[in-house]
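LAB NOTEBOOK - FOLDING QUEUE
OPERATOR: T.R.
BATCH SIZE: 2
PURPOSE: Compare the predicted structure-token outputs for two unrelated chains run back to back under identical settings.
PRIORITY: normal
REVIEWER: second-year student, initials M.K.

ITEM 1
FIELD SEQUENCE / FIELD STRUCTURE:
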Amino acid sequence: MHSWKKTGSLLAATALIASFIVGGCGSSQEEAQAGKTPVKAMQVLQQDTSVGYNYPGHLQGKEEVQVHARVSGSVLEKYFDGGDYVYAGQPLYKLDSRQYETAVISAQAELSKAESNLRNAQEELGRYETLWKDRAVSEQTLTNKRADVEGYRATVAAERAAVQKAKENLDDTVVYAPMSGRVAVDDVAVGTYATAGSTNLVTIGTMDPIDIQFSVSETEYLNLLAEAMEAGVDINTDNQPLPKVKITLSNGREYPFEGKIITADRALSTNTGSLTIEATIANPNGILLPGMFVQVHLVGVKADNAILVPQRAVQQLLDEAFVLVVGEDGKSISKNVKVGEKVGSYYIIEKGLSPTDVVIVEGLTTLRAGQDIDVTMVTPEEMGFSTTESTEITDKS
């Protein structure tokens, strides 16, 4: 009996020591875990991505014409109001025509006088030709009469041209619209003296479609060109598929129609190093006005196998960008990256990351490279990340 009691006491002591040992190990593990910085991380995305290139731009009339009078004179009548839509050939202004009416009458009188002189010269030539047959006049005299007739004939032609010109000047006292479009409100008032070829009577511009002008940098131009070449597009033909264009108005509303690029400048600007691009977009309701400022979005540009990381994971320091990734040893590692275009909640990373990297997306406030981290893996859906529209939650770490 005494031996049994002694054995039981020994077992109880052993159990007590074991409990202390186990308890001591758990405490050490908790302390070690407590020394790690909790973070959330996710695998970088690699996928074909539609890239949204955005540029500031402004609208301008596809065709704008300043209307000038071909003759000088005071404006007597105006047949439209500023802002009206006018059609090609529609009368716009009537200038004082009195001096031009007088000029027509004077030119016609000079023409009649020249025609009379020509008839007299022709009759006289006929008589001299009869006398020449009888050798009653010299050959030189006959030659002179024939020259007189040709001179009068030339004078008649000149006077006829003068009459025609005078009539054209008279007709030009009515100024017609050279094209269809909307007139500006900068039209001159009745009574204004218009100088031929210099006074801008009014400006007419087409409204549908309307042009968009914006500029891209040399780098962006080369990137777009490289993407076209990688897609197998023959850049030496006019049939290459250019990106479509959408615009956002100054009130933040997206315009419902889609435009297309129509031309690019032949050279980069020497001042800004940018290339001017022109696009055109439908304006059937006349909502868009020349001079408006818009945000231009290129649609249909794709980046193949692009590496994407959430914008919140990218940190900027001076001219450098870097992200913190999860290292194999459980520590944070800083990697310098080259950041490309924004895609929804993400940046395209052009250089610095591989598809196997796991980037830290939350807990970055006090985190530095080389720290021990306690990683919780998350998905883009859990974080609210999107490649189309940013709905990411606020980092409260």
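ITEM 2
FIELD SEQUENCE / FIELD STRUCTURE:
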Amino acid sequence: MSASEIPVALLAGFVSFLAPCVLPLVPGYLSAVSAVEADELGRPGTARRVVVSSVPFVLGFTAIFVLLGVGASLLGGSLFRNQFLLEQVSGFVLVVFGLAFMGLLPWPERLVGAGIVQGARSRGSRVLLGGAFAVCAAPCIGPVLAAILVLAGSSDTALEGAALLAVYSLGLAIPFVLAGALFTRAMGAFRWVRDHYRAIQFAGGLVMVVLGLLLFFGRFYVLRIYVNRALEWFGLEPVF
């Protein structure tokens, strides 16, 4: 995993949070994990309870995504011993997912496993509820998640693939926890983003396509050069 992939994975997590099958359900999930009624979220005294209760939920979906990252890394390493061929295949797949996310290619979007969520809620486990959330949201956030899994599959080790998906989960977790801490103000901001989701979706898909083309043509180092220049501009040492 290169440092240039870290902000991409973090941004992908945030974009996944804004997906039409995730953002509208945030109040319901916050209410479920904290046992605070949805219409009481944002009231004084509830923020700390909601944030603390969200931690095991976040750990639940992080565990699922990290396991997917490990699996993608192991599968990529076993199928493609040639790193250049692996990058070409990964780049092609990334371009396809990017076009799908932009809405230029068809992608089946439907929620699955609603019974899993209900089962997790009945057991009262916030960790299981987080895992169920990951399973149910996966088809809808599929293009973004699959794109990050492609990058994980091109990682040198399973540990790097796991780290990349952990960063992705962090990008999904930060706005979720912020929504619990600052519910009223956060929901106002998220509504604005939701209203501009198509533009964000198109821009996110374009980023995937560009990354895919760089991988396919063996020019991913160009992104690393610009990341190093940005770090130097901020007075930081290049990391590679």
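REVIEWER COMMENT (ITEM 2): The radius of gyration is 18 Å.
FOLLOW-UP: none requested
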